[in-house]
Amino acid sequence: MSSLFLYAVVTLAAIWLIDKWRKRLAFYEKLRWVNKVPGLPLIGNALEFKDPTKSLTRMQEVLLENDGLCYVELLYRPIILISNYNFVEWLLSSNTLIEKSLDYKFLHNWLEDGILISTGATWKNGRKILSPAFHFSVLEEIVTKFDKPTLILIELLEKEVGKDSVNIYSYIKNYALDVICESSMGIEVEAQKKSQSTYVKSVDSMCNIVVDRAFNPLKTKDWLYMLTPSYYKEKAYVRYLHSMSDKVIKSKKSSRQNGIKEDKDDDTGRKKKNAFLDLLLTYKDQNGEPLSEKFIREQVDTIMFAGHDTTSMGLCFAIHCLSKNREEQEKAFKEIKEISEGKDKFIYADLQEMRYLELIIKETLRLYPTVPFYSRNTSQDFIFQENKVIPKDVTLLTCAYAINRDPKVFKEPEKFIPTRFLDTDVKPFSYLPFSAGPRNCIGQKFAMLEMKATLAKLLLNFEILPSIPEHNVILSAEAVLKSKNGFCVRLKKRTI
Length: 496
Ligand code: HEM
Ligand SMILES: *[C@@H]1O[C@H](CO)[C@@H](O)[C@H](O)[C@H]1NC(C)=O
Known about the structure:
Elements: H1 2-30, H2 46-50, H3 55-65, E1 69-74, E2 77-82, H4 85-93, H5 108-111, H6 120-130, H7 136-144, H8 147-158, E3 166-167, H9 169-185, H10 198-215, H11 222-225, H12 229-257, H13 276-282, H14 293-306, H15 309-324, H16 326-340, H17 348-353, H18 355-367, E4 373-377, E5 382-385, E6 388-390, E7 395-399, H19 400-404, H20 420-423, H21 444-461, E8 462-466, E9 475-477, E10 481-483, E11 488-493
Helix pairs in contact: 7-21, 8-9, 9-15, 10-12, 12-14, 15-18, 15-21, 16-18
The structure holds protoporphyrin IX containing FE (HEM) and 2-acetamido-2-deoxy-beta-D-glucopyranose.
């Protein structure tokens, strides 16, 4: 009896294995047209891409060898690495290949159906509702919200003037958090002054947990993750973050209902447009229905996440580049000084005029795209070109870092040359810090304005010099591109 049972089990297992194997072969057959980077059995190429300080250069290397398209496997997970112009154009322009890959799932507990990670109709609807919130008339107002945090930042950095070396990372990070909280929720968290606040800590810890899960195979599967302490920590952070957003939404909502006008008119009597949250609270659909509290919370949390680490790293890298390129710094300073003559605040139009500073930021994001890669999941078989099928359930990973440093497009790609954006006509899909197509960065203009406003004020107040001893960044490709050893510079007070 028992031997019969054993026999049945073994047979079933064999059938199951053979079926798996057959499917795998069919899968490889479809992908024959993509070069495979040789790997080890079972773990595939996991070892080559495990270390975030080496993964980008390795990606760049294999992409150069394979004309911008190659196949790797991380613990059986099929991934196509991409920097090829035609493929990137096809992929990012697509209106159907819009589902994000597994890596983004770890954000789900926190951001739920927010537009960064949702797909299909949910994403489309969210994107349509949010787009007007990034219209220039709104951004014009948002720009005014940068002033207060910028003043605090300068005040804090003034205490560091004259030191041989100051690591600006935490200053900038807390600053960016102040900016995004004020502009997305209309709340002052004063991260710069109270970096120990639970809110600031929760946002920061959530970002770290999410990155850790994406890189730690032991935490990828939900059932294994649930056995680790981070699972419980994450639960607590998410509960707290959601309760905070809910509280702010509820209180804003009730003060509206009670007719308390929070948004004061400005000197000219113009109605002030407030934070993203206020816009979402006043939104009515065609039937006059307001948005649900859940929808609002998800989008506000999403903006908070997508809009703070990215810009803070962009700023850190820009400051790093300015310290290393003094001539460029002086050119930007001259331009800013002229524009600032007789003003103590910059308005939207002033920032638009800072063209040289814009070139510097563009060049910074070329060398250091703060989102170094981003990826999609094929929810079905897709056909790229004749006879070129991409089977379903493959991760398509666009490597912005490799694209932005392609020597065929950018001469001397490792050098910091802001004016390159003036004389080469860079084609749209060969420079991709903000992605492109329907799922590009919705906050691109916001990010540019924030970085310009901040750098302009910094340059008016400080000369940014290399630290002593001179510092070189060690790039680390986490969800966001970071520097493992921080960003050290030396600050000298400007005497204008
Ligand atoms: C230097 C700063 C920034 C960079 C480099 C950047 C880059 C990107 C990239 C590459 C994507 C596409 C990601 C993907 O395909 O998975 C993206 C999406 C997004 N970004 Fe940004 N971003 C920046 C700042 C911001 C800011 C300030 C905000 C909000 C205020 C923002 C909000 C978003 C949102 C909501 C999405 C999702 C859009 C969608 O899927 O429809 N980003 N960003
Ligand atoms: C990717 O698409 C496949 C096919 O529809 C699906 O089975 C899989 O769950 C998707 N993965 C993610 C991470 O969305």
